[in-house]
Amino acid sequence: MTDRHDPANTRPKASGSATHDDADPALAGIGRAMTRMRLLIGRRFVGRMALKRIGTGLELSDIDAIGVIKRVAPHQEVTVGAIAEQMRIDPSRGSRIVADLVRQGLLERAASQEDGRRSIVRMTAAGKQVLEQIEEIKQELIVEATAGWPQEDIVKFAALYDRFTVGLEAQLDQFEQGE
To answer: Any bridge partners for residue 122, and if so which?
Structure first.
C-alpha cells in the first residue's frame, strides 16, 4: 500500500474525495488559475476591451450573439432559438438582440434552406467585419499576455489548454446528461 504523502502518489483521486491537504500542488495551482480566469471572464474583460476599442454602439450581449453565429453556423443553420439556447437566455431576449443587430446591419434574416417555414440568421459583411475586429483584439490580448514566452511554451500551452478545455467540456456534457 502506498503512503498518501508519497510524492509519487500525489494526484488526488478523480472522485473528488481527496482533502485539501492531499491535493497535488500543481492541481491546486490550476484551481487557483481557474478561479482567476473565471473572474476575468465574469468581468467580461475581453468583450469590454473589444467594445471600447471598436467604439460601436454594441453591447456585450450583441458580441455574444455574433460569437454564437460564428461557432454554430459552420455546423448548422442558426435560428434565434439556437442563439438564445447557446447564450442561455429567454427566447424573447434572443429575439430582441437579433432584431437590434439586424437594424444595425450586422445580421440578416433569411429563409431556411432545410425548412422554408423557418427563419435563420446570418452575418452580413458588416457583421463579419465587426467579428474580425473582435478576433484581432482578442489575438492582441493573447500576444500581450504571452509576451516574453518562448515559442515552444506558447505551442505547448495552446495544446494543453485545448486539451484541458476538452476535458471540462466532456464533464459538462456528462453533468448535463445527468440532470
So the answer is: 108
Burial status of residue 55 (CB atoms within 10 A of its CB: 0-12, 13-18, 19 or more): exposed
Residues with Cβ within 8 Å of 81's Cβ and at least 6 positions away in sequence, in order, are: 91, 94
Name which of 99, 112, 108 is nearest 127 in CA terms: 108
One-letter amino acid identity for 149?
Answer: W
> CB atoms < 10 A from the CB of 44, how many?
14
90: helix, strand or coil:
coil
Q: Tell me: the pLDDT tens digits for 81-122?
A: 999 999 999 999 999 999 999 999 999 999 888 887 888 999
- Cβ contacts of 34 within 8 Å, gap of 6 or more: none
Residues 6+ apart with CB under 8 A from 85: none
Reported pTM: 0.73
In contact, 130 and 106? CB cutoff 8 Å: yes
> Could you identify the residue written with the cell 515559442?
151
With contact defined as beta carbons under 8 Å apart, do 119 and 109 qualify?
Answer: yes
